[in-house]
Every structure is written in C-alpha cells, then in structure tokens.
Specification:
Helices cover 40% and strands 13% of the residues. It is of the alpha/beta class and 478 residues long. α2 links the parallel β3 and β4. The chain starts with 6 loop residues before the first helix and ends with a helix.
Length: 478
C-alpha cells in the first residue's frame, strides 16, 4: 500500500522549506528527534529535490529486504506510519516522494539480525523471487557474491555510482576486478552509524588542565604521538589495579578484543588488505606498518594499568559512566550518550604522523550496503529505484539525520560538529573484513599490541602463506 503523506506533514515540510531559506539550524536539548527549530523560529526541512525520475515502473512494487534497527543503529528505511518523530516522518516523506515520482509502491521487509545471513543465502540459493534489492553487511556480502547470488552493480547502467548520493569514495575502494556487489549510499543509515570514532570526556580533560585537542585535529596534527601525551596525562586519574572498578577511572576505555587497535592501524594509513590494479593484495608487513604497530604497542605498554579493556566486545561501557578520558566507539555511540550528564565530544582516530595527508575512519563490519540479488526479475528496475531512493535520501533524510539528530541531539558543542565533519569525510572500508582475508592475522596482531608486545613479525610470517592462498582464490574467482 502506498504511503500517503498527511496534510500536517505536507504543511510541515512546506513551512520548514520556507523558513529554512533565511536561517541556519539550531537544536533543542531534548533527547528525541521529534523537532528542531531554526533561527527564524521555523522548522527545518529539505527543499524538494530535482531528479530525472521515471514512470516506467508505474504500478510495480519495489521490494526491499533490510535489517531491523540493531546495535543502536538506524537500519529501517520505510516507516509504516508517521508518528511525530522527525527522523521517522522525514523517512516517511522520502518514501512517499519516491512513490509519487515513480508510481511504484515501496514494500520493505525488516528482519532481525540473528539468522539474517543464512536466511538470505537459503532464499537466494533456492531461486526464490522475493526481493528487488537486499541490504547486507560487510561480513556477509562477499560470501553471497562468491556463490554468484548477487549481481555486479558496475554492470547496471541505472545506478549512478559516481554521483554524490552514493558513497563512491568508499565504494570505489571495494571494486574487485571491475565488480562491485554491494554499494553504500544514504538510504540506509548504518553506513554512518558504523563509522569508528574516538570519544573524549571534556570534564576530565578540564580537571587535568589539558588543552582541548580540536585545533590539533583541524590542523592535521592529531597523531599517535600526541595521543600518547594525552594518555600519559590521563593516567593520573587511575587509582591502580587494586581499586575496585566501580571506584576507579581510566584514561582509555576500549574492547578487550583489540578492535580499537585494528582501527588505529587503519587510521594510521596502513590497511592490512587493499585492492590494487583491481586485485586483492596484502599490504600489511611493510616497514611503515611495523613502525605504526611499534607506536601503538608502546602506548598500550605505557598505560597497561590505566586502561580499561576487560570486556571483550564492550564498547565505551566505562566512558558512558563518565569514568574514562577516551573511549573507542562508533558514531552510533553518540546515540547512547544522549542523556549523559557530562560533556563529551567526538574525535577521529589519530594519524601516524603529520606527514600523513589525511585522517582515516574505518567502517565497522556492521556497515551495510544495497545489493541486487540474482533472483530479482528486473535488475534495471532494481537499479533505477535504488538510485532514486538514495538520491531522495541524500536530499531529504540526510540533512535531518546529520543536522538535527547527530549534530543537535547527539553532540554537545560546535567543536564536535567540526570533528564529525572530518570523520564523515574520512570513512574507509575494512577490506579484510569484506573479503574475509587476513582477519585472523589482524586479530592476533591486535592481541599482541594490546599487551604491549611488538613481536608481530612472527604472526605475519606464520599467516602470510595462508593469506596469499586465500587472496589468490578470491582473485581467480572473479
């Protein structure tokens, strides 16, 4: 059934469009997404976009398979109704616009995360024609593609992958031998929520008389060495290993599985696996790679008793209680801190040194892209409507999600908004995760670094042959 935009929402959008012509957005301090005002007193909204829509599929149903919202991330695309929540109603507006412009009816099916991958594999393997597009995360994309269950989006002329409603800088890095089986765009917001960040407690920094690091970041000088200086100063708040956790504080809250350190390696410009000349390549193990790991190991060694890393997969559990100077997390973590009673901000992961030309913000495995299954009866229709949906989402949903939800609701100050901009412009995929190559080596390396152990050459030496065989298998299969 097509979505009908309510008269109230239509007037809301119109009023917001007129009001937003004269002012910039500013947020309120409540924890919902049910409204925001601009400096003229009106409600903000995106202007009606321009796009070459087609009615070629008038009367068709556009069937989408997607996750339920999970891990405090926003997965759903097509709300069933308006409910007064601004993000929900803006997504509803986006879908109703797509339906009006194309004549299709959008039908989204949301499934829980558990069992999603196996259910999709079974469905596609059976040849069942159930969906026109499906969303899959980084862990699941290539296993499906390797079984020839996904189509090559690079061959679909109806998808404008080089346009800015697709995250083409991210997608371009994933193209293997001219093939891209899943593309990240603005329709499904987990691509944003899954981006790695660092959290920073300003209150603790003020207590320690530390300089706020924002100008350092903006000047391109936020490096591992500078981070080490902050860690050394932050160690002063730790009361030692004999103090119970509920009475202690830490300079860095990170998961005990070393995920933060894998992120640090990538952010230092040393991805373990890359695609070069269209082929998967192992790039970990260079002289610079070892230098990066040495720096990380020293930071861990120097602060072994002042860091919290007792929970293998926990993310910022102590930071969320205002008990850590830094924490490793994802953009979605800001959602969990809406009601925090302390002042925090977000930062990109540090660079290796000032000679590194840019920051890198790794995407976690939950980052999700859109794919067209081989069972889709009309791949051109799937591509056309996926492209239009991502265009509309970029124009209608993204300004609300970024400007109101992330910037005005989740974050606390202008400095964080500037840092968010740097983070969003520095996203990068984790190819080891996407193609299932070298993840075991990275886990072993991170485990050693977490203990301050620099002896990672033995890990790479022992894993290299197996990694190269897997790489050869992947490259030859494509």
């Amino acid at each position: 059934m097509k979505k009908q935009l309510s008269t109230a929402m239509a007037l809301f959008i119109l009023a917001g469009t007129l009001a937003s012509c004269g002012g910039e957005t500013s947020g309120t301090n409540d924890t919902g997404t049910s409204g925001a005002e601009n400096t003229d007193g009106g409600t903000t909204a995106a202007e009606e976009p321009e796009y070459d829509f087609t009615k070629d599929y008038d009367g068709k149903t556009f069937r989408i398979l997607n996750y339920e919202d999970v891990f405090s991330m926003h997965a759903k695309i097509s709300p069933e109704t308006e409910d007064g929540d601004l993000l929900n109603d803006t997504q509803y507006k986006c879908i109703s616009t797509l339906e009006d412009k194309t004549g299709v009816t959008v039908e989204e099916t949301n499934r829980t995360y558990e069992g999603y991958s196996s259910d999709v594999r079974a469905m596609l393997s059976s040849g069942e024609d159930a969906y026109d597009v499906i969303y899959v995360n980084m862990n699941d994309m290539y296993p499906l593609a390797s079984e020839r269950l996904l189509t090559n989006l690079m061959d679909n002329s109806r998808i404008s992958l080089d346009e800015d409603w697709w995250l083409h800088e991210n997608n371009d890095l994933c193209v293997l031998d001219g093939k891209l089986w899943s593309a990240e765009g603005y329709a499904q917001l987990m691509v944003v929520d899954a981006t790695n960040i660092m959290m920073f407690n300003e209150d603790i920094a003020n207590d320690l008389s530390l300089e706020m690091p924002y100008k350092t970041v903006s000047d391109g000088k936020w490096t591992l060495d500078v981070f080490a200086e902050y860690m050394k100063a932050g160690a002063a708040i730790n009361l030692g290993p004999d103090t119970p956790d509920d009475q202690n504080r830490w300079n860095f809250d990170q998961p005990g599985n070393g995920a933060a350190l894998i992120g640090f390696i990538a952010s230092a410009g040393e991805p373990f696996i890359e695609i070069k000349d269209g082929k998967l390549t192992m790039t970990g193990g260079s002289e610079r790679f070892y230098s990066v790991c040495d720096k990380i190991a020293k930071i861990m060694s120097d602060n072994s008793s002042a860091m919290y890393y007792k929970e293998m997969c926990g993310v910022s559990t102590q930071f969320n209680k205002a008990k850590a100077l830094f924490a490793y997390g994802e953009i979605k973590t800001t959602q969990e801190l809406r009601e925090a009673d302390f002042t925090f901000s977000v930062l990109p992961n540090p660079k290796y040194d000032e000679n590194q030309t840019r920051y890198y913000s790794r995407k976690s495995w939950t980052s999700t892209g859109v794919s067209i299954p081989v069972t889709a009866p009309d791949a051109e229709m799937s591509g056309t409507l996926a492209d239009a949906l991502n265009y509309l989402s970029k124009e209608i949903v993204w300004p609300v999600y970024r400007g109101l939800v992330l910037e005005q609701k989740n974050l606390r100050n202008e400095e964080s908004i500037e840092m968010l901009d740097i983070i969003l412009n520095s996203g990068m995929p984790e190819l080891a995760t996407i193609y299932g190559v070298g993840t075991g080596a990275l886990d072993s390396i991170a485990s050693k670094l977490l203990k301050g152990d620099t002896g990672i050459a033995s890990v790479i030496d022992s894993k290299k042959s197996g990694i190269e065989k897997t790489i050869e298998k992947v490259n030859n299969a494509n």
